Amino acid sequence: MVGQIASIDGVEKVTERKGFGVQYDFPLHDEYGSNDIIYPLTEEEMQGIDSYVTEGTADTEALLSGEQVLVAGNDTVEEIYGWKFQVGDKVTLHYYDGSGMAEKEVEVAGMLSDVFDRDHNGIEGWFVMPELTMETLAERRIAYGQNADQIFGAISGLAIFIMMFSILSMMNTLITNIVTRKQELAMLESIGMSKGQIRKMLLGESLLLVGVTVGVTMTIGTLCGYILCRMLYGIGAVYMQFRFPVEFALGYVAVLILVPLLITVVSMKSFAREALVERLRGMEC
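Above: the chain sequence. Below: its structure as tokens.
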């Protein structure tokens, strides 16, 4: 591109300016969605970057990992915003990776002197990163997405298994409770309690059990899920962010409510096929 422009008749000199457009969030000073252009350091520029560092460090490995950035023109930042970036500050970068918007939290590793700005024809933004780092951000997001899908699949499978086990356990409890109380229910009916009242009583008891189950699941279960995500994040799975599974939760609650209703209705119909006298005789056996 530079060669083609330089070959145009009348063009005497072409100055190349490199940059990678991003938006950044800096919650410490309530800055969200601010536009910036990251200056990409070539391998040759990386070798001499230490001579420009006035505060902090410029660790090559950390910078190439994409976990850290350098800041240039910090005095200008103070003139414009009234505050400065500090070593150790956390900044979230939003960028286009070729398929969609992605984000990455980085740490400010060091500050560059004004000489760096002059030697590089006046860079346009505040942040400086190795060129190789920016080239691999998109590839890394794809890998993160694949890893996240695998972990999500494993956790979802385990969660579904636990939910199915709990539902089957609840069904067994409800069925056993109703069957063992067959004679008791018959006695209540014999002294004047209607089938509708018995049905409402059983449904109320079942829904009380469901309420306790949902309460434990939504509190302790949600807390365990959040802790698991934080643990995975802490061991390097930075793509793991907790999000409450609204669809799964609603589906689980719907099934928990539906099961007692079906069990109660089926049990009452089964009892209705047997005469009240026969059910009462069962108490004497």
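Residues 6 and 67 are 37 Å apart (CA to CA).
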